[in-house]
Amino acid sequence: MAETLARRNAQALVRLNKARPEVFPAAVLTHALARRWTPPTPRLAIDSYWRAHPLRADRLARALAAKSGAPAGWTWRLKSGAESELPVSFRAPPAPYKEAAFSLGPGHCVVCGQPVYRLGWHIDLWDRGPNKNAVWHTACVTAWQLWNAPSDHAQLLRRLQGRRCATSGARLWKTSEVDHRTPLFRVWREHRDTDWPTLLGFWGLPNLQVINRAAHVEKSATEAASRRRVQASA
Questions:
Q1: 144 pLDDT more than 80
Q2: Which of 19, 46, 73, 176 falls between 20 and 30 A from 85, CA-CA?
């Protein structure tokens, strides 16, 4: 197996170096060479880098969104009738540039609105302008996956918290769960008019925590009671 791995990685490295542009992100190359299986193309190397650093991708995607800002006239809305491109639930992060009315077209990321350059990178390292065949930054793909399925990154979040429950401080058990500090129903109800780039933080790391299941059940019950009181008074 070791011989097979070494032979395969040697071949992949030849392919990677042949296809890699002269200017290439150093951090990505370092990551690619440190992997057990060397990615054979620059695109796969970049994809592997961001998948290995989802929290870095989250910060970058929100920073790029802040640079773009929300398009004029946009408001956070949910699907109603034939507006098929709108999300059906407040649990989906708002994405104005995915809506047809505000789309910037090919060469711009549908998540953050910034230009997409060669290999899905967010900076024009090659002075070639936007890639008209792309509508996602590779980093924004990873960030979008984190925002929509944070539980897939539970192990990383546990390690970031020192394996301690965010609410009780007790040791995290295997049954611990990823939770939003501010529940998303409250984000929709109380923060709907917050500026869009700031709004994304409710889906990103600033609003994520890992808590033990018992604490999560208790927190969910308190939140459910709060929602019932609001609905009763409406």
A1: yes
A2: 46
Centre a 10 Å sphere on the Cβ of residue 97 and count the other Cβ atoms it contains. 22
Mean pLDDT within 158-182: 95
Q: What is the pLDDT of residues 73-105, one digit of tens each?
A: 999 999 887 667 788 899 999 999 999 999 999
Query: Where in the chain are the domains?
Result: 2-142, 150-233
Angle (CA) 155 156 160, round 5°: 120
Please name which of 218, 209, 155, 157 lies closest in space to residue 180, comparing C-alpha atoms. 209
Going by the DSSP 8-state scheme, the letter that residue 130 receives in this structure is: -
Task: Determine how β-strand 177-180 pairs with β-strand 208-211.
Answer: antiparallel
Number of H helices, E strands in the chain: 9, 2
Give the C-alpha separation, 111 to 136, whole Å.
Answer: 7
Whole-number Å distance between alpha carbons of 187 and 90: 8
Q: Is the pTM of this model over 0.70?
A: yes
